[in-house]
């Protein structure tokens, strides 16, 4: 536990600013830990969906997340052979390629191992490990939903639904991009930050939906859950955090099979 907490603190020290929902992938074109050239935008242009897990070696939830992603990928490949590519990319730039390879193989993962992912994690707004992004778009490369930060095993249901929507659209010829998967949650704001007793959450929805707001600690433990039925348009809600200990947390807002998130600090 002490090692994991220290690892989480290291992540926070390395990544500044709040989490945010990126809509465009950050390209890479370099060799993986096995010396094979990999081009992200090439993968996407071929009509593949790409799963990336950014991990740290001593991160307790990272292998568990990886196992869920492996199961999800296996199920998707059975339905869409050859159309799912996954990467396991080390957040810490100091990890050697041998260390990254060992983490991937020792956990039994089929994901492509890559090192030096700190710049990408910062781009996607990651804090805490693992950070997971789902990417697609044959002509318009985009992030499906939002980066998943502080992974919850239920997130794979949303990820898989987004991937199926995209790949089905290619099969039916209904779209050449992924506009149907664009996040329907706009303008997420969580304030004040740092917070003392209450936070205000505001955003807008493009269409009516049930809203679930959850708050997780850096160990991935759920500490708060609020549900609101049938929200449409601008949404604003005050949530009490008086029962939550001082520390850093992740606020997730889910609606219409999409999730966006933001980091907050609670100081009592």
Q: Could you describe the 3D structure shown?
A:
The protein is α+β, with helices and mostly antiparallel strands and 268 residues long. 27% of the residues lie in helices and 36% in strands. It folds into 2 domains: 2-181, Glutaredoxin; 185-266, Sandwich (Immunoglobulin-like), CATH 2.60.40.1930. α3 packs parallel to α6 (155-172). The radius of gyration is 18 Å and the shape is globular.
Question: TL;DR of this structure?
Answer:
The chain has helices at residues 2-14, 40-45, 61-79, 97-106, 118-123, 155-172, and strands at 29-31, 37-39, 49-55, 84-90, 112-114, 131-136, 142-143, 148-149, 185-191, 198-217, 222-240, 247-255, 258-266. With 268 residues, the chain is α+β, with helices and mostly antiparallel strands. It folds into two domains: 2-181, Glutaredoxin; 185-266, Macroglobulin (MG2) domain (Immunoglobulin-like).
Query: Which structural class best describes the helix and strand composition?
Result: alpha+beta
Which oligomeric state applies?
A: single chain
Main pleated-sheet profile: 6 strands, mixed
Q: Helix fraction?
A: 25-40%
Ranges where pLDDT stays below 50 over 5 or more residues in a row are 1-20, 174-183
CATH domain fold name of the largest domain: Glutaredoxin
Provide the number of structural domains: 2
Q: SSE order, as H and E?
A: HEEHEHEHEHEEEHEEEEE
Strand content: 35-45%
How many distinct helices? 6
Quick one: how many beta strands?
A: 13
| Spatial shape | globular
User: Distance between the terminal alpha carbons, to the nearest Å?
Assistant: 24 Å
Corresponding CATH superfamily of the largest domain: Glutaredoxin
Radius of gyration (CA) equals: 18 Å
User: Mean of the pLDDT scores?
Assistant: 83
Q: Write down the CATH class of the largest domain.
A: Alpha Beta
């Amino acid at each position: 536990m002490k090692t994991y907490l220290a690892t989480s603190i290291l992540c926070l020290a390395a990544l500044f600013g709040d989490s945010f929902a990126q809509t465009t992938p950050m390209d890479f074109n370099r060799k993986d830990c096995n010396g094979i050239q990999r081009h992200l935008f090439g993968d996407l242009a071929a009509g593949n969906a790409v799963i990336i897990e950014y991990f740290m070696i001593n991160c307790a939830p990272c292998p568990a997340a990886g196992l869920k992603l492996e199961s999800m990928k296996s199920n998707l490949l059975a339905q869409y052979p050859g159309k799912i590519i996954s990467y396991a990319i080390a957040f810490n730039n100091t990890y050697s390629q041998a260390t990254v390879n060992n983490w991937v193989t020792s956990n039994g993962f089929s994901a492509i191992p890559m090192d030096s992912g700190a710049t990408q994690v910062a781009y996607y707004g990651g804090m805490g490990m693992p950070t997971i992004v789902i990417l697609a778009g044959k002509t318009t490369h985009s992030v499906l939903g939002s980066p998943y930060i502080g992974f919850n095993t239920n997130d794979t249901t949303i990820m898989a639904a987004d991937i199926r929507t995209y790949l089905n659209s290619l099969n039916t010829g209904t779209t050449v991009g992924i506009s149907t998967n664009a996040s329907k949650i706009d303008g997420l704001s969580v304030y004040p930050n740092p917070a003392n007793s209450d936070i205000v959450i505001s955003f807008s929805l493009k269409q009516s939906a049930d809203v679930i707001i959850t708050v997780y600690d850096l160990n991935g433990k759920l500490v708060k859950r609020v549900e609101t039925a049938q929200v449409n348009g601008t949404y604003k809600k005050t949530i009490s955090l008086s029962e939550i200990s001082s520390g850093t947390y992740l606020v997730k807002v889910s609606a219409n099979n999409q999730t966006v998130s933001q980091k907050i600090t609670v100081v009592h």
